[in-house]
Amino acid sequence: MKFYENSAIFNYSWEQVAQGFWKRYPNPNSKHVLSEDTVSRELKSGKLVSKRILTKTNNIPNWAKRFINTTYVYIVEESIVDAKNKILVTYTRNIGFTKVMSVTEKVTYTQCDVNPSKTVATRYAWIDSQVRGFSRAICAFGYERFKKNAHKMVGGFNHVLQNMYPHQHVIQTGYVTATAATKLKDAAKNASELAKAAPMYASLHPN
């Protein structure tokens, strides 16, 4: 197994980042993300808990074609938004070809301690493979690809935030009110309504 860890700082308040999270697709760095579909969303103890299915595609090297016969992969994304304490945590994992390579990611978005007008995103990832005789090479490949994509994800999210807040120079900070929490929920709801339905969702979640 390979473990990846990295941190990035966004020059936007936590409230802005939390609202932008639901609108981060599409962006110039995420052309591989084909669709989004919300499975569930509810408030639990004042926290917004969501589960979504993302459809992604990636070019695969020739050696991997002996194990994988498609470039499409489905990702489960679970998130918890704690507006009161200004914490957004996301968990993602692939739900296809997990024996070949499984990637589990956790990202925590928190208000910067040094500068409250900025947001710190801490990313962790675990890459594993169960292919006997090839697991080490597959994990190494997965690690390098994830590392490269992590930088692209940060750049793509920054692009979205810049478009959402092009003229905002002074960022208001302070206690998150109920109104702010409602805005986060509305942003998530609006993003869900605009998202494309994942083409394999029905087969993945039969009634």
UniProtKB/TrEMBL annotation:
Domain of life per record: Eukaryota
Record Pfam families: PRELI (PF04707)
A cellular component annotation (GO) from this entry: mitochondrial intermembrane space
InterPro entries per UniProt: PRELI/MSF1_dom, Slowmo/Ups
Domain PRELI/MSF1: start-end pairs: 1-169
Name recorded for this polypeptide: PRELI/MSF1 domain-containing protein
Name of the gene: 109542835
